[in-house]
Amino acid sequence: MGKEKKGIRLEHIGKIYQDPKTKKDFYAVKDTSLDIEPGSFVTLLGPSGCGKTTTLRMIAGFESPDEGEIYLGGEPINGLTPNKRDTAMVFQSYALLPHYNVFDNVAYGLKLRKLDKGTIEKKVTDILKLVGLEGRESRMTNQLSGGQQQRVALARALVLEPGVLLFDEPLSNLDAKLRVSMRTEIRRIQQEAGITAVYVTHDQSEAMAISDKIIIMNKGVVEQMGTPQEIYYRPKNEFVADFIGEANFLHGKLLRRQGADGIIEINGNEIEVKEIGDTEPGTDCTLLLRPEGATLADAGELPCEVTLSCFMGSYQNYHVLVGDTLVKITDFNPKNKKVYAVGDKAFVAFAPESGYLI
Question: pTM here?
C-alpha cells in the first residue's frame, strides 16, 4: 500500500471501571506493556472479561487509558480522537451503511476526506480487487452473504490506508466453515497489504492459524506474548497451557539435572524430560504433556489404567489414570496399532522432548 509500516507500543497501560453492583473500582486492564512490530499480525486472546477488547478499544481511541501511554509509530496518541489516529477498525457487526451499495460503502471514508472522484474510483477498484469483490460494486449490502459483507467492511477499512488495522472479533457472526475460509483471506490480505494488524478473538484455532504473535490475557493482565509455537509448546504457566489446546498436568519433583535435561519423579517413577528451564533439583514441578505427545505401550516408566478408549477415525482417544491423575491421549493413525480397552493396564510413553516443565 506504499505507506510506512507502523508499530504499536503500550507502556504500563491501565483501565479502571466501576462494578455496577458493588460500586467498587476494578482494573479491566492492569499495567500492560506490549511492543507490536510494524507489519506483524498480532492476536489478543483470552476468556471473556480478560481485557482484550478494552485493550483494542484503547488503541483505537474509543476508550482512554487511566494509566500509561500508547504510541503509534513512535508518536504518543492518548490525546487523539479515533478519527485523528492512523488506525481503522473492522467491527464484529460490520457496521455497513444499508442504503449504500458496495462501492459507496467503501468510498465513504475517502469522500469524507474530500478526495477527487478519479482518485476515489481507482482506490476503491483496487481494494475491491484485493478482497475479491470486483464486479459487485453496484450490489446493495443486504444482497450480499455474511462473508461478502465482511469483505466490504475490510475493504472500507483498508482503503483509508491506515498504519494499523484493528479487528474486533470480525468472524464471530459467520458459520464455522466460512470462518475458516475468511480467516485465511484476512491473513492473505494483511500480508499483501503489508499492514500491521491487531486482532481480538476468543477462538484459539483462529488465533493459531493467522498470528505472527499471540498475546494471552487473563483478568486484565498479559500472561504471555509469543509465536503460536512458543505459546503452545513452551507456555509460561498452567493457565496459558490450559487455554491453548488440551493439556495434561502431571505433578512431581525434579530429582536431578543433566545439563539442559532432567529426571523427574512422578508417583515414584523416574522420567527423563528435556526443557526443564531453571527449575532447581529437589523442588516440586508440573510436567506439561500434550495429548498428541503421548501414546500407550506395554512397557515403560509411567504405569496407568485405561478408563476410556474411543475410536475417532484418524485417532484413538484414550483417558487413563496415572495414580489419581487423569491423562488424555490422542493416538493418531490407530489402524495398525494395538488398541487398548477400558480396564487394561498399560504405560504412558512419550519422548523426553514431548514434556515441558512449567
Answer: 0.88
